[in-house]
Design a protein that fits this description.
This protein is an alpha/beta fold and 327 residues long. 30% of the residues lie in helices and 27% in strands. The protein has ten helices and 15 strands. The radius of gyration is 20 Å and the shape is globular. Bound molecules: NADP nicotinamide-adenine-dinucleotide phosphate.
Length: 327
């Protein structure tokens, strides 16, 4: 089969569509013929050599895949050849085929294209596990989502809205702010123009938000804690601005706030399967109805993965960037 190969160089790595060995599914795996995959920011880090795949995962880039099941192992339950599915991967999405444990598949909702379905697993499951499982969201609570127009951010806005929460987001450009508002964010702050702490306190009558979903890290730590209510939860999913910061532990204790660090990719298949099950139970019907639907920014042919990465590297995407593998 063909897959994207990373050719390291002095500067930006080259991404080349080239022949590689076919994957062979294990007893609990299906072979998925991939029609589309999507770009996640982790792919850029992996291509640059900073985010190696967990042990046992394919070394090929790609955390999402949508396509058709073309073979099933003897211990696979609930899936048949010909089924349309999307998969949460630890790697292997930038390819014509991938072997994936059947517990990491989700059905493609009726009426969704492969392109849309490729946008579902990684960012929606990230938003879900961090807001709903780790931070224990309850209806009516207020959530501050940084990077509101990112893949994860657009998913988070939709899930929190759908679950009866109140969403405040930050974004760095007027078009991104406008997208967040269209998606249902109650308040969208352009962080280049406005202080998000003040906005969060106004938004919550001075109390602070119950949950912060953060991808900026160190430079936001102090302000995130100011924006967070007593007993609130601050979840770190990335450190785009830096990872080392100073913390007033005594104030954290007094306000009984919790800091949570979280990654999805390196969790066990069992943990990921439980996350998928919880997500489907809570949001499956809304996905089927089309009440929750991914925001697609641009579609690139897989052969142009490098241009797609460039688009994301420059923070130009509003929502998800998709890579089309089969026309
Ligand atoms: N821990 C996990 O399990 C997990 C899983 C999935 C994703 N992630 C992480 O979550 C982040 C979002 O992923 P994605 O694929 O959705 O990426 P993405 O679409 O590229 O979004 C990244 C966002 O970060 C925002 N941003 C960058 N620097 C910022 C800064 N200094 N201040 C405020 N906002 C800033 C950008 O928004 P503006 O242009 O508006 O600034 C951009 O929308 C990535 O860092 C990714 O690695 C973590």
């Amino acid at each position: 089969m063909k897959a994207i190969q990373v050719i390291p160089g002095d500067g930006t790595p080259r991404l080349v569509w080239a022949e590689v060995p076919d994957p062979s599914p294990g007893p609990r795996e299906v072979l998925l013929e991939i029609h589309a995959t999507s770009v996640n920011r982790a792919d850029l880090a992996q291509a640059a050599g900073h985010y190696p795949p967990p042990p046992g995962a394919p070394t090929i880039l790609g955390l999402d895949a949508a396509g058709i099941v073309v073979a099933v192992g003897p211990q696979v339950e609930g899936w048949q050849v010909g089924d349309r599915a999307c998969a949460l991967l630890a790697g292997g999405g930038y390819a014509e085929q991938v072997a994936v444990d059947h517990r990491l598949l989700m059905p493609i909702p009726p009426g969704w294209s492969f392109l849309e379905a490729a946008c579902l697993p990684e960012v929606y499951l990230t938003a879900f596990v961090n807001i709903f499982v780790e931070a224990e969201f309850q209806p009516g609570q207020a959530v501050l989502v940084h990077g509101g127009a990112s893949g994860v951010g657009t998913a988070a806005i939709q899930l929190v809205r759908h679950a009866g929460g109140r969403v405040l987001v930050t974004a760095g450009k007027p078009a991104k702010v406008a997208l967040c508002r269209r998606l249902g964010a109650h308040r969208a702050v352009d962080y280049t123009q406005e202080d998000f702490v003040q906005a969060a306190l106004e938004f919550t009558d001075g109390v602070g938000v119950h949950i912060v979903l953060d991808m900026v890290g160190a430079p936001y730590l102090e302000r995130n804690l100011q924006a967070l209510a007593p007993t609130g939860r601050l979840v770190f999913i990335a450190t785009l601005g830096g990872s080392v910061a100073e913390l007033d532990i005594r104030r954290l204790m007094a306000r009984r706030q919790r800091l949570i660090g979280s990654v999805l990719r390196s969790r066990s298949v069992e943990e990921k399967a439980a996350i998928i099950q919880g997500f489907q139970e809570q949001f499956g019907a809304a996905l089927e109805r089309g009440a929750i639907r991914p925001v697609m920014d641009r579609v690139f042919p897989i052969q142009e993965a490098q241009a797609a990465h460039e688009h994301m590297r420059e923070f130009r995407n509003l929502g998800k960037i998709v890579l089309q593998v089969r026309p």
